[in-house]
Amino acid sequence: MTTTITAPGLAQRLKTETAEQHARMHRLMEQARPFASRENYARFVAAQYLFQRDVVHLFADPAVKAAVPDLDQRGRDDASLADLADLGASAPQGSIASEGVAMPEALGWLYVSEGSTLGAAFLFKEAQEQLGLTAEFGARNLAAYPEGRANAWRRFVAALDNEHLDPAVHDAVITGASAAYDRFGVLLEEHFELA
Ligand code: HEM
Q1: Tens digits of residue pLDDT in 72-122
Q2: Measured by CB atoms within 10 angstroms of the end CB, which terminus of the chain is less buried, N or C?
Q3: Could you mention a single GO BP entry for this protein (predicted)?
């Protein structure tokens, strides 16, 4: 019997190699308590808006579009902005943190944003139950894509594991994901004034 050992694909590597950063997001969210009040939640949405703006900024790059063909169905910057308006909060200002980021790092930024739609299912539930928000008012940024979270995620993972993406660039995608997690971490720290 022959055993073939295949190297883990990009999606698997991203999950494994950024697991600690994901765990850090949980810790920051626990400290931040975004569902303690609508006022606190608005701070979360402000952070989400700035992060989504960084991510959507990358959509204009033709190389990113080629890697993820359904980009027009992704991104939650507009949803976050509408949520801020619902909550009576103004849109935060600030420069784009992903300026100059291109493929393959850009794909790592998209990974963090798209992956966060999975965890958002839990956050959406809390926003509904604790704050009375909905997919049409205040919690659009946490709602599922029209086709459902699982379907949108499955197609994104297929884009990550596309055979046309040269394995030589996988490390750079992971570097991009790491930078995106760092950015969200900084935004949470700033907006919730965490130490
Ligand atoms: C307390 C807040 C959070 C909770 C409870 C949470 C929960 C989860 C859960 C349960 C999954 C796995 C879903 C599945 O496999 O079906 C997941 C995946 C993921 N989450 Fe979170 N999450 C949170 C915050 C975040 C934040 C703030 C980010 C990034 C800004 C993030 C990024 C991701 C990514 C990238 C994945 C995909 C992991 C993979 O399968 O490769 N999460 N999250």
Answers
A1: 999 999 999 999 999 999 999 999 999 999 999 999 999 999 999 999 999
A2: N
A3: heme oxidation
What does the pLDDT look like over 59-86, one tens digit per residue? 999 999 999 999 999 999 999 999 999 9
CA of 22 to the centre of ligand 1 (A): 7
Nearest protein Cα to ligand 1, atom 41:
15
Distance CA 115, CA 22 (A): 10
Mutate-to-test residue for ligand 1 from 13, 44, 48, 118, highest number of ligand atoms within 8 A of CB: 118
Q: Please, are residues 9 and 161 in contact by the beta-carbon 8 Å criterion?
A: yes
Domain ranges of the chain: 14-191
Does ligand 1 come within 6 angstroms of the Cβ of 179? no
CATH 1.10.8.100 at 14-191, yes or no: no
